[in-house]
Write a structure and sequence with these properties.
Largest sheet: 8 strands, antiparallel
Low-confidence stretches: 1-29, 381-395
Structural class: alpha+beta
Strand content: 5-15%
Order of helices and strands: HEEEHHHHHHHHEEEHHEEEEEEEHHH
Mean pLDDT: 90
Number of strands: 13
Helix content: 25-40%
Length: 399
């Protein structure tokens, strides 16, 4: 079943100039023009800090601007391009949340119902609600904390393995929960493994089929795939490079992997074009009812600059603009994908590096340049807070 409204086709890829876009339904002149030079400087800085390549795309109410620096492949030296596909890591969580919100629209899921109602006996506490899973407030321990305590050995241990969802949940349940259900935000990949189980139980179809039928086909996303458990990225793509924990050790090509350790929490492949199309459609109200979108956008504060809804993160930038989307980290790739609340300006940015905190922090600057424009004076970019850093495990796909 498709939830795509019968509006005109999504933003094309034709224009060069950038237009001002409203935030929070404000007048069109509120947002400054994106600072393309600032974006390019961020990408070049990421290269100096160890990323082989970096790129960004801004879709702005019909206009498109692209920037790229460095290489997609360290061996061939092919330049990275916004035409390249890549692993989007935890941005996958927003895809999973959209499917479940659509099921809520169809009356097949209640957000405040217990997970146990749909998946009897899976979790030890019947008080854990679907809403708490989607908002990282279930208290379920994140199994990737142990899995990737050491970046390269942990990755090599799982890169070709195929896990079941229940095997991953079992890894979490070996540990005490981080908090009582609903008591606090605590980011955990386990939550969106449970989300994958819910999708498959409620629909009788694979996560891949539901992504395809509900999001990918209706939005005509030509670069978006869920290939698990296949290891290769189809078509033209950027290779991903994992930074070892030991300083000076060579980068590890992490491109080929099953991503079975993440699945519905982090295994989607996409492109900057498709991510902007997806977020614009989501925030523009084209993928679910306004009532369910409002539920998705109901945020719980994480720290001074971030809040989390249902599979959706809000960031408040230095200029006061709030943007909505998700970040993703999977071995070899860092992704930022955010848009204004109305979806009319969106940014997707990628560095083909991971386990490199300096690059991660630097790439946050693409949001500042895309949504805050040029700085008239030096303004310190907000660095990830302690809570934000908790969302990134060494070498893992943790947001």
């Amino acid at each position: 079943m498709t939830h795509l409204a019968s509006k005109s086709a999504l933003l094309g890829t034709v224009a060069l100039s950038l237009l001002a876009v409203p935030a929070h339904a404000a007048p069109a002149d509120v947002l400054p023009k994106p600072d393309l030079t600032g974006v390019q400087n961020v990408l070049r800085t990421a290269l100096k800090q160890g990323a082989p390549g970096a790129m960004a795309r801004i879709d702005d109410h019909g206009s498109v601007t692209r920037a790229a620096a460095g290489v997609a492949d360290r061996k061939s030296k092919r330049p990275i391009s916004n035409a390249d596909r890549f692993r989007i890591g935890s941005v996958t969580k927003t895809f999973s949340a959209v499917v479940l919100m659509q099921l809520a629209d169809e009356g097949r899921l209640k957000l405040d119902a217990s997970v146990d109602h749909y998946l009897p006996g899976l979790l030890p506490d019947r008080k854990i609600a679907v809403r708490q899973v989607l908002g990282h407030r279930s208290g379920l321990y994140d199994y990737t904390n142990d899995m990737f305590a050491k970046a390269v050995p942990g990755f090599e241990e799982v890169r070709t393995k195929v896990f079941s969802y229940r095997q991953l949940v079992d890894r979490s349940l070996r540990h005490a929960r981080t908090n009582a259900p609903g008591a606090a935000y605590s980011y955990s990949n386990t939550n969106f493994v449970v989300a994958g189980l819910l999708i498959e139980k409620l629909t009788g179809h694979s996560v891949r089929t539901e992504y395809q039928n509900r999001i990918i086909k209706p939005l005509k996303l030509r670069d978006t795939f869920y290939v698990h458990p296949d290891r290769k990225i189809p078509g033209r793509h950027a290779r991903g490079y994992l930074t070892p924990d030991r300083a000076g050790a060579p980068l590890v090509d992490a491109t080929e992997q099953t991503v079975s350790w993440a699945q519905s929490a982090g295994a989607v492949i996409s492109s900057t074009r498709d991510l902007n199309t997806f977020l614009s459609a989501l925030l523009g109200g084209r993928l679910m009812s306004s009532a369910q979108l409002k539920q998705m956008e109901h945020m719980v504060r994480v720290d001074s600059t971030q809040a989390y809804g249902l599979g959706l993160r809000r960031r408040t930038l230095s200029c006061g603009v709030s943007v909505y989307g998700h970040t993703g980290a999977v071995q070899g790739y860092y992704t930022y994908a955010f848009a204004t609340k109305d979806g009319r300006r969106s940014l997707a940015a990628l560095a083909n590096a991971s386990n490199n905190g300096r690059v991660l922090t630097t790439m946050l600057g693409t949001l500042e340049s895309a949504f805050c424009g040029k700085k008239t004076k030096n303004v310190r970019r907000p660095a990830p807070t302690a809570h934000a850093r908790e969302d990134i495990a060494p070498g893992a796909a943790r947001d």
